[in-house]
Design a protein that fits this description.
Blueprint (H helix, E strand, L loop, with lengths): L4 E12 L8 E6 L11 H10 L4 E12 H14 L29 E5 L2 H18 L4 H21 L4 E2 L11 H13 L3 E4 L2 E4 L1 H5 L9 E5 L4
Antiparallel strand pairs: 1-2, 1-3, 4-8, 5-7, 6-7
Helix pairs in contact: 3-4, 3-5
C-alpha cells in the first residue's frame, strides 16, 4: 500500500498571551495548515474556552513535507528541543499519550473493529497465524483480542492515516487479562509488526508498507458498551 505523502504541513507553536498565563505553550503538527487551528490537546482546549481564543496565538515554526511517520519524527524533534513533555509550561505534558504523539488518536481499544471482506479476513488470519507461532499457546480469547488489536491498527491507518494507537493495560478486553495483552504486544514486536510503550501501540513502517490494497470499507466498527 502506498503511504500518503503530505505536500505541505506545519509544525507550530501555540502560546497564551494572557498577562497572567504567558508561560503556557503547545507544540503541534497541522497537516491542513489551518491558521485557526490551535491544537487538539484537551487541556489546551479547556484554557482556550476559559481565557478566550483572543488570548492565544499560533506561530508556524517550520513548513514540512513527507509521510505521517516523517512528519511525526520532525514534530518529536521540536518537542524534545523544547523539553515540552516535562516542562510544566507546555500543554504537551497533559493527556498522557499526546506527549508521545502529534496526531489525533481517533481509533483506540474503545472500538471493536472486525474484518468483513475476504481480503481483510485473509490478511488478518495470516498475520494472526504468524503471531500464534511466535506466542506458542494461543487461546480463543487471545486470538479474538489479537484480531481486535490488528484490525484497530489497520482501520485507523487506512481511514485516518493514524500511526499510533492508545490502549489501557488495566482494562480487561473480553476474558483476557493484562498479561494476555502483553503477550500479544510481545508477539507484534517479535514479528516487527508494531512496537508499544507508555500505553501506545505504534505500527512499524515495514508493516505499513506491506499492507495489501485494503479499504476502510473492508471493516466494521462499533464502540464498546462501556465507552
Amino acid at each position: 500500500m502506498q503511504r500518503k505523502n503530505y505536500s505541505k504541513a506545519q509544525i507550530y507553536l501555540t502560546e497564551c498571551t494572557h498577562p497572567q498565563y504567558t508561560n503556557l505553550r503547545y507544540i503541534g503538527l497541522d497537516t491542513k495548515c489551518d491558521p485557526n487551528y490551535l491544537g487538539s490537546s484537551v487541556a489546551l482546549k479547556w484554557w482556550i474556552n476559559y481565557l478566550g481564543r483572543n488570548n492565544f496565538t499560533k506561530t508556524v515554526l517550520e513548513e514540512i513535507t513527507g509521510t505521517m511517520t516523517e512528519l511525526c519524527s520532525i514534530e518529536q524533534k521540536y518537542i524534545l528541543e523544547h523539553d515540552a513533555v516535562r516542562s510544566p509550561f507546555y500543554f504537551n505534558m497533559n493527556g498522557g499519550s499526546r506527549a508521545a504523539s502529534i496526531e489525533d488518536m481517533v481509533i483506540d481499544m474503545n472500538y471493536i473493529v472486525r474484518p468483513t471482506s475476504t481480503l481483510s479476513q485473509t490478511f488478518v488470519d495470516k498475520t494472526i497465524s504468524d503471531m500464534r507461532e511466535s506466542m506458542g499457546f494461543f487461546s480463543h480469547s487471545k486470538r479474538q483480542l489479537a484480531s481486535r488489536v490488528l484490525c484497530m491498527m489497520l482501520y485507523g491507518y487506512i481511514k485516518y492515516d493514524q500511526c499510533e494507537f492508545e490502549y489501557n493495560s488495566y482494562t480487561h478486553y473480553g476474558t483476557c487479562k493484562p498479561e494476555d495483552f502483553q503477550d500479544i504486544l510481545s508477539a507484534l514486536s517479535n514479528l516487527n509488526i508494531a512496537n508499544s510503550g507508555l500505553g501506545n501501540i505504534i505500527p512499524t513502517e515495514e508493516f505499513l508498507d506491506s499492507l495489501p490494497e485494503l479499504s476502510h470499507e473492508h471493516f466494521s466498527v462499533q464502540l464498546t458498551q462501556n465507552h
